[in-house]
């Protein structure tokens, strides 16, 4: 009898839409990792209008992070979200180190995962992530199946949660026998009530799949 496929997910940036997102995830018993930039959270929610996304993207206030993400896993997204390969390597090293320390102090849980800001990395910046104690570093590349990862410090997920071929990739990963399916996203990419309804159904379909089980991202690399 084969083991069920592990389904893992992670979400970037700790924005206010995560409040609704986490409610949906709890409803379906879903595990998830949230990738945070601790240096960008102030006493109040803040964030400017974003031309690319045609909406204001507001990060959660520092004081609400622990309650919003109660029961979920926290991972490092760097301290202030710079482009990794566009800053001095020593500055990058400090970004990675400071982000991890702050998050471990705030949430009182091990921080073993990392997500590259803008998906930007090279060999040197990836080595910094590994040397800082992270067991994996997630890119925005795409690889189905996601396992085996040739380089855990620069691993590619199967897809983004809004990819048109999400379910085809899900079934391909299941058929491959790799044992895992990994997707990622930002909750601010959900705009309308129809978007939220579709996401709720997406999580419900996975939860109802007898051949799948929710798991933590770090479990794929432990």
Helices and strands in order:
Layout: E1 5-12, H1 18-27, E2 33-36, E3 49-50, E4 55-56, H2 65-68, E5 73-76, H3 89-107, E6 113-115, H4 123-131, E7 136-138, E8 159-160, H5 166-176, E9 180-185, H6 193-207, E10 212-214
Helix pairs in contact: 3-4
Can you tag this structure with a few keywords?
single chain; 222 residues; alpha/beta; TIM Barrel; six-stranded parallel beta sheet; two-stranded antiparallel sheet; 6 helices; 10 strands; 31% helix
What does this structure look like?
The protein has 222 residues and is α/β, with parallel strands linked by helices. The chain has one domain (5-220): Alpha-Beta Barrel (TIM Barrel). Helices cover 31% and strands 17% of the residues. It contains six helices and ten strands. Strands 1, 2, 5, 8, 9 and 10 form a six-stranded parallel β-sheet that branches. Strands 3-4 form a two-stranded antiparallel ribbon. Strands 6-7 form a two-stranded parallel sheet. The longest helix has 19 residues, at 89-107. It is globular and about 45 Å long. The model has no long low-confidence stretch (mean pLDDT 97).
CATH architecture: Alpha-Beta Barrel
Q: Tell me the helix content.
A: 25-40%
Poorly predicted residue ranges:
none
- Structural class, from secondary structure content? alpha/beta
In terms of quaternary structure, the protein is single chain
CATH class: Alpha Beta
Report the principal-axis shape.
globular
Counting structural domains, the number is 1
Q: How widely separated are the two ends?
A: 24 Å
């Amino acid at each position: 009898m084969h083991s069920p496929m592990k389904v893992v997910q992670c979400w970037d940036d700790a924005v206010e839409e995560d409040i609704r997102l986490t409610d949906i995830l709890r409803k379906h018993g879903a595990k998830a990792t949230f990738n945070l930039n601790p240096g960008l959270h102030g006493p109040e929610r803040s964030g400017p209008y974003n031309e690319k996304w045609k909406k204001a993207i507001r990060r959660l206030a520092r004081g609400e992070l622990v309650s919003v993400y109660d029961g979920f896993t926290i991972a490092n997204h760097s301290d202030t979200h710079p482009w990794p390969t566009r800053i001095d390597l020593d500055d990058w090293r400090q970004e990675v180190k400071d982000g991890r320390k702050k998050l471990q102090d705030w949430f009182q849980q091990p921080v073993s995962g990392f997500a590259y800001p803008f998906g930007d990395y090279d060999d040197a910046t990836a080595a910094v992530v590994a040397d800082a104690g992270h067991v994996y570093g997630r890119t925005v590349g795409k690889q189905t199946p996601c396992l085996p990862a040739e380089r855990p410090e620069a691993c590619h997920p199967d897809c983004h949660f809004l990819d048109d071929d999400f379910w085809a990739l899900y079934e391909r990963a299941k058929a491959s026998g790799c044992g895992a399916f990994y997707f990622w996203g930002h909750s601010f990419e959900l705009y309308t009530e129809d978007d939220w309804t579709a996401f709720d159904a997406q999580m419900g379909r996975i939860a109802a799949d007898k051949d799948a089980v929710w798991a933590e991202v770090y479990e794929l690399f432990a």
